[in-house]
Amino acid sequence: MRKHVSALALVAGLGFLASPAFAYTVYVSNEKDNTVTILDSATMQVTKTINVGQRPRGITISHDGKFVYLCASDDDTIEVIDTATLQIVDTLPSGPDPELFVLSPDGKTLYVANEDDNLVTVIDIESKGVLAEIPVGVEPEGMGISPDGKTMVNTSETTNMAHFIDTATHEITDNVLVDSRPRFVEFTPDGKEAWVSAEIGGTVSVIDNATREVKHKITFEIPGLRAEAIQPVGVRITADGKKAYVALGPANRVAVIDTATYEVQKYVLVGQRVWQLAFTPDQKTIISTNGVSNDITFIDVATDEPVQSVTVGALPWGVVVSPN
Amino acid sequence: MNSPVQGKSIGASATPIAAPDFGLYNYLVCLKGVLVREGLRFLNQRERFISSLVRPLLWLFIFAAGFRQVLGVSIIPPYKTYVLYEVYITPGLCGMILLFSGMQSSLSMVYDREMGNMRTLLVSPFPRWFLLVSKLLAGVVVSIAQVYVFLAIAWFWDVKAPPVGYLMVLPALFLAGLMLGALGLLLSSLIKQLENFAGVMNFVIFPMYFASPALYPLWRVQESSPLLHKICQLNPFTYAVELIRFAFYGQIEWTSLAVVIGFTAIFLAAAIIAYDPSRGLVIRKQDAGGNG
Lengths: 324, 292
Prior knowledge:
The complex is a heterodimer of chains A (about 325) and B (about 290). Chain A has about 325 residues and is mainly β. Chain A is built from 1 helix and 28 strands. Chain A is globular, with a radius of gyration of 18 Å. The relative contact order of chain A is 0.14. Chain B is globular and about 60 Å long. Chains A and B meet through strand 27 of A and loops of B.
């Protein structure tokens, strides 16, 4: 992990010297038209659209950038896309209805939330074998893993809990009650806190990873918007741990939060029903998927200003950026 | 006014209507006189300054806040992403300042003519067209100052453009101000009495303002009424607003630029003819009507 961090720092440093920004490849899963849109992060233009399995949602990429992993929810499988050829080269046994997953920091294991089965499936990527199936609460969704890879957190939408799972034993060690319909988990880079968004509750719970208790609850308020319209989903925290970004669903905004004070600094206007977020590796840009307006928005991290919105496929859900 | 008529003449003279042989220096002195007077008048009338700012600020703070969620989002050039309603209407409000200011200076022309100040100016031996252009320039400079104060306040309201936009908007404001000021001059030649200004408000300012993309994008107008869309397209103010909007984001909208320059030339030429001292009031009115 440290290697990755220093590599990231190096890339960030180089990016700083050489503006305009480094060109990375952006992959967006489009839930409704069963495609993945591929864009260039520097030009912010669509370069290609490929057909994938049914209802693509969760999307991530191997640490070397060679393979994109994609939850084809209605095909009950995880597809492996070769980033060089953009062909689906393999599938992984995910269990039914995979929605969201997280890749272990060592890049060897995928932890998959099976929404319909109340399970978390642990997959070894190399052998394509299922290492474990962990029973969790009803409608598991959010998946997060600590930077040291020792703790995995799953949220269950209906049980309203964050389940802390020991990755060595595959056992649930703690259950933390959060607000209604928890959607997403993100650890701070120091591994001390897990941030859990609650879509219906409209909050983000900050859970202390040492005590496994909610130490703070972040609420949102946008003038002129009904409270029900504020539905936090995707959460991302900068590599330096200073700022957090929370996608607020039908509020059409991304909240920027100071992680030291837990105060919202700004609401960035993006497209409609903003869902998931991803940083570029240089951390200069964060990209949001806007499901209803069928586009993604590039946000400048330094100024927190939206730069450009680009139309992608139908109902964009997840986004990931190549590490190189 | 108060221009030194007896100043020494330097260089070649322009070709005024039976005017003495003035040099460039004399013209500049005259221009400066008109500019300073307009500036002083503006500074001395603080209420006018404040009221000229209050109008767009009311729109920005209250109207835009109320409509924030109502008027849907859509990306149209020059915007590259979604913008809040207050961001959308800011260029239109800049146009509004120029529009009101242009009409206000036409009001002041009527006032000046009634109260005699204008006579002082118009009996000056400088050619009439030069006096009118000086007056026009003075009005534009003052209104641009108002726009920049407004933009500074809007900046704190989180309506921000790229830094280059604040520079690029200057020539756009100048051109738009010139066009609207020239229209004001033309109208002032048609209005005999101060009281008629209310008519200008109702028949010129409001229709021009509302039938333009200042408050809502034209595609939305077209959705609700193709006829209204056509009217908007015939409205010179539409092009002034779009010229300002694109310039604010560092871009040039060539169609708007051409239209604004064209209308400026037409309005100004008509105003100069209307104010031609060799024509009588009645003839002047007919002429202006024919050319406007």
